[in-house]
Amino acid sequence: MKTLCAIVFAAAFPALVLAQTGVGVSPPRVVLEAQPGETVQGVVVVDHPGSDAPMQVDVSLSDVIVQPNGEPAYLDPGSVPQSAALWISVAPPSFTLAPKETREIRYSVHIPPGCASGTHWAVIFFDSGPVQKSQTKGVGVKMRVRVGHVVYVNVGRITQKGAIRGVRYQPPTSRNPPEIRVRFRNTGNGLMRLNGYVELRDAAGETVGRAVISNAASLPGYEYEISGQLEQAPASGEYLALIMLDYGGDEALIGEGKVRVP
User: Does residue 218 contact residue 199 with C-beta atoms inside 8 Å?
Assistant: First the structure.
């Protein structure tokens, strides 16, 4: 029996999408506060939105990083210095949900003594699929869907700072509208959530487009692109991009750069 696993996860960790073919999780992410040597508790609600058959749910832990293009990559627990995956204990490791059933899954986060200050993180994944009552002969497909609950742990003193490193225009595709992509580096030790906008102005100083950046996650120590969508593609030419990013600190981050639209 072949197994097909679909990962339902959004880039840069916005709200996870609910898959109608699998379970849903709430909240999609949580931020916990702790000190070295402490143990803190978390809870995530897992629900079965379907009405046909029970779901078998298996729990696993993973590291996650964001690649330079803004897409996530999932790694074995303990693969990155800021990993919290090896700190987390989840009970139970597997369970069954009846149609329309909701269940609270509790977990503990054990912060090691001497842990470095900063944001540490991990993903608790829930892999779900129909309960298999019997094995049939021949080749078939067993569909499983994976959704995640992101755990951020702020340990000790958190510093938030960063730098805008570039900006570019991303043309529209068959699936996505045109975008403005801002390359941002988090130079502090804490998670940042960026809100703001990018304005495109022509040679006369007129605004020809505006892209909104909403709740974009920036992981400490990483540099990658965050994006905002434009309503329509500007005419071909070169524009000045004015960038404003607010992370909830005392001052907003301001930058500018040249953008060429083909």
Answer: no
> Where in the chain does DSSP place strands (E)?
2-8, 24-26, 29-34, 39-47, 55-66, 72-75, 88-91, 94-97, 102-110, 118-130, 141-155, 162-170, 179-186, 192-201, 207-218, 223-229, 237-246, 253-261
Residue 215, token pair as written in the block: 């709740």
Q: What is the dihedral of CA 211, 199, 215, 160, to 10 degrees?
A: 160
Distance of alpha carbon 226 from alpha carbon 14, whole angstroms: 12
Please give the chain's pLDDT, 262 residues, in tens: 444 444 444 333 443 444 456 899 999 999 999 999 999 999 999 999 988 889 999 999 999 999 998 899 999 999 999 999 999 999 999 999 999 999 999 999 999 999 999 999 999 999 998 886 554 555 555 678 999 999 999 999 999 999 999 999 999 999 999 999 999 999 999 999 999 999 999 999 999 999 999 999 999 999 999 999 999 999 999 999 999 999 988 889 999 999 999 9
Burial level of 210, CB count in 10 A (0-12/13-18/19+)? middle
Side-chain-facing half-sphere of 21: CA atoms under 13 Å: 12
Using CA atoms, how far apart are residues 147 and 22, in angstroms rounded to an integer?
8
Predicted model pTM: 0.86
User: Residue 234 phi/psi, 5° resolution?
Assistant: -70, 165
